[in-house]
Amino acid sequence: MNILPNSVKEMIEVLSDISGIGPKTAERIALFIITSKSDIISRLSNVIEKLKNEVKVCSECGMVSDTDPCVVCSSLERNRKVICVVEKPSDVLVIEKTEQYDGLYHVLGGVISPLDGVGPGDLPINKLIDRIKKLEVEEVFFALDPDSEGEITTSYIVSLIRKSAIDVKITSVAKGVPLGGNIEYSDTLTLSRAIKNRSIIDSY
């Protein structure tokens, strides 16, 4: 018998949908929020309302931001001749923490995954090609997870770049990020070295 109120069960279900949070963790978080003597519920409510009203997706790179274009795309201090291709916004944050990369980003918002029904047309790949041409980019740096979906996505985009006859250097994170690993959960030192020593892609 489930004795929890429906509203609590709904909160647990919502929290469980967040990447990295399992059902048990979601349950602990929900119960903590509800039983907390602080004003955490009202604070959460205010923050979520702000997120809804103020946070947007950059129309250039796809990163979450409160400005459009985002601070990276609009910065005059970034190297605009290099674009780093990542799967999700959290990957951008991890790479920024390494302080080894000063170029632009392109957030795909996913990877090609036929089993999940995600094809090339579901991702902003054509926009990436357009940005490469428009900005006259000299290097496209792939920092996708080194798993099968990441490899398929990288291979597809590289083939498009080459078919477009764009003269650009194509690189990826060097050895250090394990095969099947996850960029988001790589430690800063390992990722920092992998970015600094990124290698040229010549096998696609």
Describe the model.
This protein has eight helices and seven strands, in the order H-H-H-E-E-H-E-H-E-H-E-H-E-H-E. Helix content is 43%, strand content 13%. Helix 1 crosses helix 2 and helix 5 (89-98) packs across helix 8.
Oligomer: single chain
Please identify the structural class as seen in this structure.
alpha/beta
Task: Give the strand order, joined by hyphens, for the main sheet.
Answer: 4-3-5-6-7
Radius of gyration: 20 Å
Total number of strands = 7
Main sheet specs? 5 strands, mixed
Number of helices: 8
Alpha-carbon distance between the two ends? 55 Å
Q: Kindly estimate the percentage of residues that lie in beta strands according to DSSP.
A: 5-15%
In which range does the helix fraction lie? 40-55%
Uncertain runs are none
Principal-axes shape call: elongated
What are the SSEs and their pairings?
Blueprint: H1 6-16, H2 23-35, H3 40-54, E1 56-57, E2 64-65, H4 71-74, E3 79-86, H5 89-98, E4 103-107, H6 125-134, E5 139-142, H7 148-163, E6 169-172, H8 188-196, E7 199-200
Parallel strand pairs: 3-4, 3-5, 5-6
Antiparallel strand pairs: 1-2, 6-7
Helix pairs in contact: 1-2, 5-8
Gist?
This protein has 204 residues and is an alpha/beta fold. The protein contains 8 helices and 7 strands, in the order H-H-H-E-E-H-E-H-E-H-E-H-E-H-E.
